[in-house]
Amino acid sequence: MLGNRQSLNADQTWDLLVVGGGITGAGILREAAQAGLAVLLVEQRDFASGTSSRSSKLVHGGLRYLNNFQFGLTWQSVHARDALLAVGEGLIEPLPFVYPIYHKDKMPAWLVEFGLYMYGWMGGQWRVHQRVGRDEVALASPDLSDSDLTGAFRFYDAQTDDARLVLRVLREGMEAGGQAVNYARVQRLLRDADGTVSGAVIDDQVSGAQVEIKARAVVNATGVWADGLRNGDARLRPLRGSHLIFRQDRFPLYQAVSFPHPDDGRPVFAFPWEGVTLLGTTDLDHEADLDEEPAISPEELDYLLRAVQGHFPLLNLTIDDVLVTFAGVRPVLDTEAADNPSEASREHAIWLEDGLLTVTGGKLTTFRSMAHEALDRLRAQVRDFAVNKNKAGLNRLPPLEHIPAGLSRWEAQRLQARYGPAIVDFVCQMPLDDRRRVDGLPIHWLEFTWAARHEAVVTLSDLLLRRVRIGLLSANGGEKYLPRIRQLVQAELGWDDARWLEEETAYLEQWHAKHSVPVQAR
Questions:
Q1: Residue 272: which domain range?
Q2: Into how many domains does the chain fold?
Q3: Nearest to residue 221, comparing CAs of 445, 46, 25?
Q4: Region class of 148: left (phi > 0), else alpha (psi between -120 and 50), else beta
């Protein structure tokens, strides 16, 4: 477990200071700690509060990157996906995709199939897709338009809860001896007389203390904010990806469907996720202030609605059916080679500048290989260590010895995969009523209590948007559930009534500003 939020200790010299609490920083913390290094991670807001809780929730090889000739990235991603699937049951789950083929498509069927053959070959199998006839498509996706439909291809990737993946990686790093502190903002870097980075001055935004942290090496894993910490020439191109979430009864899907947008041919996808249906994504240059939380624009919302209306016309989906929206900003490398954002490279980059190692770009799926490459670059700066590169990016969990009453095996496995083995005994101590699920969602009431007690929650948004994702899965951010949630967590968090009301107000204001349908779009 993450444990209660920790305080910063200025008395220790660390082997490694990692700045940034998304998947990249979490992966470096885990690999460094498991290699025996003394490593501290600091995050200016909450863990995974940036891009790593706002991704498309896919653990995938990047089939579309083959169109941009990014063969190395696809190869690396396919193998990382398969390694995570092998150990991630309950958190990393297989996801079948259907790619429908229409007579009018710009890309011919033979070329799509050639790309799928390449995709399978990169994963060590020559054929991992199947041809699907019109009748089978109608059975699997009855609401998909069959006008001009010739058939489809089925292939497989995987999905996850991105924020919970970050938290699990952090937890495994902390269990190996690492330390991670949220709401700890780097105020400035420390430098030796020769200009080499040797630590940072950090503002603890909870206690108000300012602490000097010394480290043999400093890693800038701040994602889209990396240029700001580097304070050098801009090398990143922030790109915004926005998504819509629908109730599953309004947009019923039993597998993922990927299809070209009717306007520009960009790939769009929809799939069942955590009891809802997720539709994404856009790909636009993000020109707003990076310190402001991103939100979908009216134009993006209209773009995504046109995609689903064009391919699922029988559903008659409108703006009123949109349950939740969310947007994230991707740290994409800025090159002059791609004017079209969708053609910009998703490769990662590592720069060592005056002792500051910046790791940015890349994909959620490949976090472990990025961590290994970063640590390899730091060997000259820190003490001798050895990284085990033969393991997957997650620890293999022990088999479930028993299933708590009131839970299915799937539910128990899901809880263990997200919160760690200790939650199984915790479930057994909870009343049967708290073991129940929240309406039809795959969330149990006891998860709120566990997260409040064990997972360094500082604000209500931490709890409802990242620890337990009710804010992305229900109307109005789960406002109707707040009285019950308050009963479960207020004492755990040590908040008096005034603090609770303050947090509730701030959370709902944030949700309506950043996760509801934009007022201009109505």
A1: 78-84+93-158+236-334
A2: 3
A3: 25
A4: left
**What DSSP letter does each residue of 130-196 carry, written as one string?**
EEE-HHHHHHH-TTS--TTEEEEEEEEEEE--HHHHHHHHHHHHHHTT-EEESSEEEEEEEE-TTS-
Q: Is residue 495 domain-shared with residue 505, that is, in the same domain?
A: yes
In a domain, 330, yes or no: yes
Distances (CA, A) of 169 to 111, 162, 166: 38, 11, 5
175 and 245 together in one domain: no
Does any domain span residue 438? yes
Same domain, 276 and 139: yes
Position 16 scores a pLDDT of 97
Nearest 10 degrees: CA dihedral of 109, 110, 113, 119? Answer: -120
Residues of the chain whose pLDDT is less than 70? 1, 61-73, 123-127, 335-346, 521-522
In this prediction, residue 339 carries a pLDDT of 63
Distances (CA, A) of 255 to 30, 252, 261, 271, 273: 32, 9, 19, 6, 10
Q: What are phi and psi of 313, to 5 degrees?
A: -65, -30
Two structure tokens written together for 467: 């620890």
Q: Which residues pair with 395 in a beta bridge?
A: none
- pLDDT for residue 129: 78
Phi, psi (rounded to 5 degrees) for 49: -75, -15
Residue 59 lies in a domain: no
For 215-244, the pLDDT digits (tens) are 999 999 999 999 999 877 778 899 999 999
The answer on 440 and 321 residing in a single domain is no
Report d(CA 350, CA 275) in Å as an integer. Answer: 38
Contacts with 107 (C-beta within 8 Å, 6 or more apart), sequence order: 260, 265
